[in-house]
Design brief:
Rossmann fold, 7-stranded mixed beta sheet, 4-stranded mixed beta sheet, binds 5-S-methyl-1-O-phosphono-5-thio-D-ribulose
């Protein structure tokens, strides 16, 4: 199978997501959120009826992963617009209220820039429609915002497919890779980022085996990536986080591929805790380390010392599930993301193409053109 002749439109028609983290009900104007806290044992959807519910879902990780929380927030704004349109006829007033909703949604989680990106995209569209008078009622504005949220979700699937195509070129000849956390369809619009090339390989009849670190403390690897790879029938092996170095040392993986929550213009990659350690070991052992992410994950404005790394509940570390594994009052530090310096990153795979070092030159060159 040649990777050179892959036809995007043909693949788009044929590849359907097997995983649906977010389902929009346009009749009832509610968002069905796959409750990822309950996976892999139970597939259950939570009905989000407004921005407060969406905030709850993001903060409490019913939906997680950078692109997915952005999509959820876009629907949160659309739902708010529908509710507000029944209460006010003033376009200026609805815009101001939606801006407040946007500020509120941004507080759900601080690290993934996609959340901010999606909210800004929705609000700028609203501002543009109000200023240009291209809508004549608050109802029309709400409908247009709903259409934009749907478009953000649909386009996310398309760009995940483009990431799959570019990523598979980098993984050509690899028989096994290691990932981190869950950067799959559960974290995006069905295909994911880091897992997208592996799914495309499967579709083309090639098996790439995935080593999945458990990803303590929230266990996204053990609970979500394993589930997703099982659904896709992709060979995989779960490993303890502490086994990451030894697995690479033994030569069991040909490459690493992870997602990202934020990538800076100089190539610093902010991703799930444990990524930095993987990248350093990969560099030491000469194993390629790839990051796969859409344009919406890039933050071209902020510097590394301005990034807020989320710290979560200490009990996530003290317990596994409901089982206490240490003393109940053990002091805990629980940062859930880390920062990988650009020198450890072999290439960044985006929907627009693959970016190589020097990133401070090539990131803006590709993304600002
Ligand atoms: O805390 P999470 O589960 O939201 O963290 C998710 C990650 O770190 C992913 O690697 C990242 O968001 C990319 S998802 C395509």
């Amino acid at each position: 199978m040649s990777l050179r002749n892959l036809d995007f439109e043909d693949l788009k028609r044929k590849i359907k997501p097997k995983i649906q983290p977010l389902i929009w009900d346009s009749t009832r104007k509610v968002l069905h959120v796959l409750d990822q806290r309950k996976l892999p044992h139970c597939v259950e959807y939570y009905e989000a009826r407004g921005p407060e519910d969406v905030h709850y879902c993001i903060k409490n990780m019913l939906v997680r992963g950078a692109p997915a929380i952005g999509i959820a927030a876009a629907y949160g704004i659309a739902m708010a617009a529908h509710t507000l349109s029944a209460r006010t006829t003033s376009l200026e007033e609805i815009y101001l209220k939606l801006s407040e909703v946007g500020q509120f949604l941004k507080t759900a989680r601080p690290t993934a820039v996609n959340l901010e990106w999606a909210i800004t995209t929705m609000l700028e569209h609203a501002r543009g429609m109000v200023d240009s008078k291209s809508v004549s009622s608050t109802r029309e504005l709400a409908e247009a915002l709903e259409r934009l949220a749907v478009k953000i979700q649909e386009e996310e699937f398309e760009l995940e497919l483009k990431i799959a195509i570019h990523g598979l070129e980098k993984l050509e000849g690899c028989s096994s890779v290691m990932t981190q956390c869950n950067a799959g369809g559960l974290a995006g619009a069905g295909l994911g980022t880091a897992l997208a090339p592996i799914k495309l390989a499967k579709y083309l009849g090639m098996d790439i085996k995935v080593y999945v670190p458990e990803t303590r403390p929230w266990l996204q690897g053990a609970r979500l990536t394993v589930y997703e790879l099982r659904v896709e029938n992709i060979p995989h092996v779960l490993i303890a986080d502490t086994a990451v170095g030894y697995v690479m040392y033994k030569g069991l993986v040909d490459a690493l591929i992870v997602g990202a929550d934020r990538i800076l213009r100089d190539g610093h990659v902010i991703n799930k805790i444990g990524t930095f350690k993987q990248a350093v070991i990969a560099h030491e052992l000469g194993v390629p380390f790839y990051v796969a992410a859409p344009k919406s994950t890039f933050d071209l404005k902020r510097r590394v010392n301005e990034i807020v790394i989320e710290e979560r509940d200490p009990d996530e570390v003290r317990k596994i599930g409901n089982v206490l594994i240490t003393l109940p009052d053990t002091p805990v530090y629980n940062p859930v993301f880390d920062i990988t310096p650009p020198r450890y990153v072999t290439a960044i795979i985006t929907e627009l193409g693959v970016i190589y070092p020097p990133y401070h030159v090539n990131v803006p060159r590709l993304l600002e053109r």
